[in-house]
Amino acid sequence: MAFCRIGGCFMVMPGLASIRVPMQVRLFVSLAVAMALLANTWDQIAPFARRELDAVSILMVSELLIGVLIGLLARLYLLALQFIGSAIAMTVGFNGMGGTAIEEAEPQAALATLISFSALLLLFVLDFHHEVVKALLASYRILPPGTLFNPQSALIDLTDTLSQSFMAMLRLGSPFIAYSLLVNLAIGFVNKLTPQIPVYFISLPFVLGAGLVLVYFGIGPFLRLYADGFVPMTIGR
């Protein structure tokens, strides 16, 4: 039962659930963490250990869903970052050919890959994966094994995390979106004034260069604010 909740969380947890991590590594890490945390959760789990197959099966499914919910709340925050990273790459004109993504299997723009990988590395450097483990321990006080999985409460948590995460990422990416709107609007006016000159193709290097300069000065505060909002929007829930 301990492995079901912890393994379910690690199955979808950011970083550890990446396609770059072999399945055997995920399995052994989940087993090791489950055995390590079992000493602290024995009193909460042992009273519900039964020999009836039906009762144990229901509890295992419930524990698995609770663990997946905890890991999915953290993963949604990373997915929101990948979304705004792709939007930033598109607004600065740096989304030509999709490259190899780090976290997912689908091709991703090079700038979006850089942003998402930097944020993921920052989360692990700042020990935010320890916050996930602490959330798993706290979940045994809030949702003991005898409390079955509540789909309504889980759906409310998922929708709230999804909406708040994407709104936070839109606020973080708003300077790049504003830059894209202003630059493209100015280029459109200039193109109307001089229709004989292909202003759009001439201006592309300048738009890209200014966009990369904006990324250079804005990536530091962007990642810092992203890391500050990880616990309140995911684990703090």
Task: Tell me about this structure.
By secondary structure, the chain is mainly alpha-helical. The chain has helices spanning 2-12, 23-45, 53-91, 110-125, 128-142, 151-172, 174-193, 199-228, 230-235. The protein is elongated.
Keywords:
mainly alpha, 237 residues
Number of strands: 0
Low-confidence stretches: none
Radius of gyration (CA) equals 22 Å
The helix/strand class is mainly alpha
Overall form: elongated
The sequence of SSEs as H and E is HHHHHHHHH
Total tally of structural domains: 1
* Estimated helix fraction: over 70%
Largest sheet: none
Averaged pLDDT: 83
Please state roughly what percent of the residues sit in beta strands, choosing from under 5%, 5-15%, 15-25%, 25-35%, 35-45% or over 45%.
under 5%
End-to-end separation: 23 Å
Topology record:
Layout: H1 2-12, H2 23-45, H3 53-91, H4 110-125, H5 128-142, H6 151-172, H7 174-193, H8 199-228, H9 230-235
Helix pairs in contact: 1-2, 1-3, 3-4, 3-6, 4-8, 7-8
Task: Characterize this entry briefly.
By secondary structure, the chain is mostly helical. The protein contains 9 helices and no strands.
